[in-house]
Design a protein that fits this description.
This protein is an alpha+beta fold and 301 residues long. The protein is built from 13 helices and 5 strands.
Length: 301
């Protein structure tokens, strides 16, 4: 006998097709949404990129504000062209009194430490002093136009900033003396030990500027410094100097033994130091002599 198929089989097939259609519709709708909103999202990102660039100056300003918690009244960075023009004006009108680097001269004060300069913001304090002068203190007034006053202010503010921020401060040239006078001083005070010394040949190529000056003013103590110690008992010890201060002296003798002695009025200490002449020279050296000799040494390249 013929039998009808169970009704539940057709129902299951129909239900599976319905689920497949629904899933397909969901996927298509999702793809449609993505295709509509994806370009908009990209455009939004592109529009935000210029804002990131524009925020860079704000970051620089934030750094300056942070620095001002350490350095009050820190001037902002000045326009380089204005600073260059201001330096030319300063050299021609101000350097002979206030020094080449605005740190003070023979008759003018240090402008980098000036309360007035430190509290000036845009020339409102510096400008009137330049125009009117301070005749009671020997400073004449200068009839300069406003644009030149602005350039001078920019120069002073940049010098002030650079001096405060030591990590950006550039040490100026120390070879500002007279090389001829420096050679004359060298011949009379140094030539006895250094005349024809190969160590001086090309010394200005090895060390430059402030390092060269520091090395001849206060050379590093060599390892062959020796000391002799005479005690009140008549005993005498000598050897390589280890340490010397106002309380004790210590040495290594010829056998490598470490010896230390307290210093008193009856203990005599004699140092044999090849560089002792440099240290004694500091007691009689003037600033002019120092710069003259350094300028002469700068010619030995």
């Amino acid at each position: 006998m013929f039998k009808k198929p169970p009704v539940h089989s057709n129902l299951h097939a129909s239900s599976a097709k319905t689920k497949a259609l629904r899933l397909t519709n969901v996927i298509l709708c999702g793809l449609l949404v993505i295709s509509i909103f994806w370009p908009t999202r990209s455009t939004a990102q592109e529009k935000k990129e210029p804002n990131a660039t524009a925020s860079e100056p704000t970051n620089a300003g934030a750094i300056d504000e942070s620095l001002r918690s350490i350095y009050p009244n820190l001037p902002p960075d000045q326009d380089p062209a204005s600073v260059a023009r201001g330096k030319d004006l300063y050299d021609a009108n101000c350097a002979f009194c206030h020094g080449k680097e605005a740190t003070g001269g023979n008759s003018g004060p240090d402008l980098l430490r000036s309360v007035l300069v430190n509290h000036d913001e845009k020339g409102e304090l510096i400008g009137p002093v330049i125009h009117q002068g301070r005749t009671g203190k020997g400073m004449p007034g200068f009839n300069l136009p406003d644009n030149q006053i602005s350039d001078l202010v920019a120069f002073l503010h940049q010098r002030n900033r650079d001096a405060r921020l030591r990590f950006t401060y550039k040490v100026p040239s120390v070879a500002v003396g007279d090389s001829v006078a420096g050679k004359a001083y060298f011949d009379s005070h140094c030539a006895a030990c250094h005349a024809g010394s190969p160590a001086l040949a090309g010394i200005a190529s090895k060390y430059q500027g402030d390092e060269l000056q520091q090395r001849w003013l206060d050379p590093r103590r060599p390892a062959d410094v020796t000391v002799s110690v005479s005690l009140s008992t008549g005993q005498k010890y000598s050897g390589k100097l280890k340490h010397l201060d106002e309380f004790n002296v210590s040495l290594y003798d010829s056998q490598g033994n470490y010896r230390s002695f307290p210093l008193n009025s009856e203990t005599k200490v004699e140092i044999q130091d090849p560089l002792d002449g440099h240290r004694k020279l500091l007691e009689q050296l003037s600033d002019k002599d120092m710069h003259d000799v350094t300028t002469f040494l700068e010619t030995l390249k």
